[in-house]
Amino acid sequence: MIVGIIGTGTMGTILIDAFIASEALRAEQLIITNRSLQKARVIANKHKRIKVASENIEVIRKANLLFICVKPKELFHVFQEMQSIIKPEQCVVTITSPLSETQLDYLVKCSTARIIPSITNRALSGVSLFTFGKSCTNEWRKKLYQLFEKVSTPIEIDKSNTRIAADITSCGPAFISFLLQKFIQAAVDVGGMNEVQTMKLTEEMIIGFAELLKKNHYNLVTLQNKVCVKGGITGEGIRVLENGVGTMFEEMFKATNAKFVEDVQFLETQIGKEF
Question: Which uninterrupted H or E stretch holds 94?
Fold first, then answer.
């Protein structure tokens, strides 16, 4: 199987690195391109035998499975290029949440799917979110699951849950990273610790935290209860957090959904059809 990747930005590169690191794909099975070809060539220098195509059309023609890893504003142009040359036996996957399965089926006449990866997939971990177009054959569904099982835990979701699920699994690492950086800065400012050492302590704490969950020693609730002894220091910290968080996360989810709706409307304008 030849796998094509159009767009070698952050997520496109993560998929390439993860597929090769997990041995889900060999480098020679990949053909890639990018608007800035130099970015694609950097990847090819890292993974010898990856083929770099000079234009999208070459990737579309040669790949059995196509991953479209471009920003929403570039999507419609890519689909316009492939409409006249895509074959029914091919499969097209977008990693962009605002493009729906119905729109995919409308734009290209082949098997289609939307798969939203996460940066955690680079560590061959975390979740990849699956929704399928009606046109997607059982054979392609099986192949996609087998491919992503090597780099993640594939989970099929209801399309109505796309945005909130992606906020948790795909955007979540950035949100948590931001909060931890604030946590570290406060420890430095209040406690006077060295920032480098504080960051190291925090990173090791998070790794250990994840291992406790991974090995099923605790879940999020039981872990908090175990550490938070009644009347103790941790309890005082939790009290402050409870008073300070307020509706912060609700507002965050509302903001990401508003941006999602904006992108959906932009794509509908480009396609010229409401779905």
Answer: strand 91-94
CB environment 153-171: b (16+ within 10 A), e (fewer) = ebeebeeeebbebbbebbb
- CA–CA separation, 167 and 169 (whole Å): 6
- The residues pairing with 4 across neighbouring beta strands, listed in sequence order, are 31, 66
Helices 248-271 and 72-83: angle between axes, nearest 10 degrees: 30
For 90-103, what is each residue's pLDDT tens digit? 999 999 999 988 99
Q: Kindly report the pTM of this predicted structure.
A: 0.92
Asked if 93 contacts 115 with a C-beta cutoff of 8 angstroms, the reply is yes
Which CATH number is 3-157's, of 3.90.25.10, 3.30.470.30, 2.115.10.20, 3.40.50.720? 3.40.50.720
Rg (CA), the chain: 21
Q: Please list the residue range(s) of the chain that carry CATH number 3.40.50.720.
A: 3-157
